[in-house]
Write a structure and sequence with these properties.
The chain is built from 4 helices and 17 strands. It has one domain (23-360): Beta Barrel (Porin), CATH 2.40.160. Strands 1-3-4-5-6-7-8-9-10-11-12-13-14-15-16-17 form a 16-stranded antiparallel beta barrel. The chain has 361 residues and is mainly beta. It has helices at residues 2-21, 123-132, 141-144, 248-252, and strands at 24-39, 49-53, 61-71, 74-83, 102-109, 113-121, 155-166, 169-176, 189-198, 201-212, 215-229, 232-243, 267-279, 284-299, 305-320, 325-338, 349-360. The longest helix is centred in the first third of the chain and has 20 residues, at 2-21.
């Protein structure tokens, strides 16, 4: 018995000594961002509104992230992240989900990459939001409408995700478990994206499929960005989506848009975008972005399915007051015809002007 106690004590001392030298950290982080925005044609009477709302590029959020060094280049990692409405103080989702944006834990290795499990951003959202979209998948409808069909699928519950970087090659893959007894594929998802960077050019191709009660939503992206210099980047790409779930027609609509009498079971969208990001002076950054979408088999106002074209342009100027705080102004215009008439509350065009402030902590 004495030998057993002595051995156990030695083991505890060894463990406590290792813990004392382990590198670990937990960080509270986030950003707060809001705008005052003027927007035309916001109802059936074509009235304009002035309202406070979300930021142009970045919804307000806060979170906790941490890592623990396990040795040999391997760390345990986690992230818990919530999105909030700064102007109301509410959680920014319809279900009052506490950690809407991310809730995961996993292992990361400096050589082999990172494997995480939980609720996570999809690979598509990672690359478009962080690298390839000029407005980082903007928050205003007029800036992000081409992504509305994939909007419900930018995050995935019960998912396993891998991210790895190998000499200019960036890989991401995700699988979301459907959790339906007797049907492993139902309500599941998978997505993969492959990027490669050489000199100033970075290009990406990705695919994502979501199953919704046995019906499929697919999205394919081909994207590129070229940096002429540290101060100037050009961006462009193609986003192709096919929706068999019937949700894309509804997800495309703005708040207050007319009620649809049916939804398409095979809507197809081909969207193209171009943009530039220019660091004009150390504190001043200017972004110009244009989006175009051709929809087929989309729900029309009244009845039936048809085609439609929508396009928009946005100018954004951001001025840094410090490393953490900036003010900005933006102007945008959008216009649609055909099936896209169902997405406007009033006339088939809108102009928006907004000013905002963002602080990062």
């Amino acid at each position: 018995m004495k030998k057993t106690v002595t051995t156990l004590g030695a083991a505890l001392l060894t463990f406590s000594g290792s813990a004392a030298f382990a590198q670990s950290s937990v960080t509270l982080y986030g950003l707060v961002d809001t705008t005052v925005r003027y927007l035309t044609n916001t109802n059936s009477a074509n009235d304009s509104t002035v309202a406070m709302g979300e930021g142009v590029e970045t919804p307000s959020r806060f979170g906790l992230k941490g890592s623990e060094d396990l040795g040999g280049g391997t760390s345990a990692v986690f992230k818990l992240e919530s999105q909030i409405q700064l102007w109301s103080g509410k959680l920014d989702n319809s279900s009052d989900m506490l950690f809407q944006r991310n809730a995961y834990v996993g292992l990361s290795n400096t050589q082999y990459g990172t494997l995480t499990l939980g609720r996570q951003q999809t690979p598509f959202f990672d690359v478009m939001g962080n690298i390839y979209d000029p407005l980082t998948v903007g928050d205003f409808w007029q800036d992000s409408w081409i992504y509305n069909p994939v909007g419900p699928y930018l995050f995935t519950n019960s998912s396993v995700k891998y991210v790895g970087d190998f000499s200019g090659l960036h890989l991401e893959g995700m699988y979301g478990f459907g959790g339906v007894a007797g049907s492993n594929g139902e309500n599941s998802m998978y997505g993969v994206t492959v990027s490669y960077q050489i000199a100033g050019l970075s290009a990406d191709v990705g695919f994502q499929q979501n199953d919704v009660s046995g019906k499929k939503f697919n999205v394919l992206n081909v994207s590129a960005v070229y940096a002429f210099a540290q101060q100037l980047r050009l961006l462009g790409g193609w986003v192709h989506s096919q929706d068999n779930t019937g949700q894309a027609d509804l997800d495309m609509q703005q708040a207050g848009a007319p009620q649809l009498s049916l939804q398409s079971s095979n809507r197809i969208d081909d969207a193209f975008y171009v943009g530039t990001q220019w660091q004009a002076t150390p504190p001043l950054a200017i972004t110009l972005a244009g989006y175009y979408d051709h929809a087929r088999n989309a729900a029309m106002l009244g009845d039936g399915l048809g085609v439609g074209i929508n396009y928009s342009a946005t100018l954004l100027a951001e001025y840094s007051l410090s490393k953490r705080t900036e003010v900005y102004g933006t102007v945008d215009f959008s216009r649609g015809n055909g099936a896209f008439l169902a997405d406007y509350p009033g006339r088939n065009n809108q102009t928006g002007v907004a000013i905002g402030i963002r602080n990062i902590f």
